[in-house]
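Researcher: Let's do a round of design. I'm pasting the structure tokens now; please hold your answer until I've finished.
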């Protein structure tokens, strides 16, 4: 079994991944900025250096990891108040990521799994599910920084011999989910009317436990080296279908108003939220055939099972 170092181990995806690794018999060290929050059984390493500065110097003598899974990142935010958002994203998601790779290689790590984002590829699918070999067209500073980090890692891997594996998930959901997915569940649970009934475009999602399982494959499978993978549940839903399924599992009514998409676009322009509306009404499906073929991966949970687990958590926590 492997010894795996997970950055961001106390986060939403990090905790699920550490659980999957521990269940598989692996030794797990969590690299975090603040103590606490790691799953029981995870060895905690607290490093407070800004954007992983001086990481190699701080590396514990006893830590001999086989693989690093890099989850820590400056995440996408809807209303960024930074004066230069792209510079801030680059500082963490590009420069910080490269520092992790360099420190890992210097300490004998053979593989790094980088959790990127489908936003590194595109915000929409242009009529067919996005494949890994499609031209990358990131549309915001977050997506741009993730794409640049991918490019920097690939180049560093060629120069150093560090095996690089890149994983691009779409929207991740599951227990402890935050941001827009949590807002949607709150609105549904309160029985609020939502203007989603006329949206027909489908979007890919990935249940956090499915993503964790895919990442374990990327850690352990020799065939993953040098690959880029799109990972999703494989059961794409419209926003209306998603809301109805959540309502069923939340034991709440789905009050979906069929507001024409053209009206939603106008509302987006009037409120300065065109980008958010475009993401809501646009199609973003990903092609997951590459990881299924190359690694023999199949998501262990259906989308309905994932949504049911998410709703159970919400009902218990709220």
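Researcher: That's everything. Go ahead.
Model: Designed sequence:
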């Amino acid at each position: 079994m492997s010894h795996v170092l997970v950055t961001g181990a106390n986060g939403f995806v990090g905790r699920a991944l550490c659980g999957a690794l521990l269940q598989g018999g692996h030794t797990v060290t969590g690299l975090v900025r603040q103590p606490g929050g790691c799953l029981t059984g995870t060895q905690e390493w607290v490093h407070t250096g800004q954007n992983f500065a001086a990481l190699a110097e701080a590396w514990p003598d006893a830590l001999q990891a086989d693989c690093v899974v890099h989850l820590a990142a400056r995440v996408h935010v809807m209303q960024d108040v930074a004066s230069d958002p792209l510079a801030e994203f680059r500082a963490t998601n590009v420069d910080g990521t490269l520092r992790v790779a360099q420190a890992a290689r210097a300490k004998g790590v053979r593989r790094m799994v980088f959790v990127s984002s489908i936003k590194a590829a595109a915000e929409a699918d242009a009529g067919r599910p996005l494949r890994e070999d499609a031209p990358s067209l990131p549309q915001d500073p977050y997506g741009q920084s993730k794409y640049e980090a991918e490019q920097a890692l690939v180049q560093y891997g060629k120069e150093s011999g560090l095996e690089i594996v890149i994983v691009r998930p779409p929207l991740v959901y599951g227990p402890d989910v935050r941001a827009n997915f949590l807002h949607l569940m709150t609105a549904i649970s309160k029985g609020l009317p939502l203007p989603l009934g006329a949206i027909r475009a489908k979007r890919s999602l990935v249940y956090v436990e499915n993503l964790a399982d895919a990442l374990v494959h990327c850690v352990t499978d020799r065939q993953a080296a040098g690959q880029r993978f799109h990972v999703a549940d494989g059961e794409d839903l419209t926003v209306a279908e998603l809301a109805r399924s959540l309502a069923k599992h939340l034991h709440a009514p789905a009050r979906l108003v069929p507001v024409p998409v053209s009206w939603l676009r106008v509302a987006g322009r009037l409120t300065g939220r065109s980008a958010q509306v475009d993401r809501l009404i646009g199609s973003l499906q990903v092609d997951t055939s590459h990881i299924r073929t190359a690694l023999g991966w199949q998501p262990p949970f259906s989308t309905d099972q994932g949504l049911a687990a998410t709703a159970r958590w919400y009902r218990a926590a709220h």
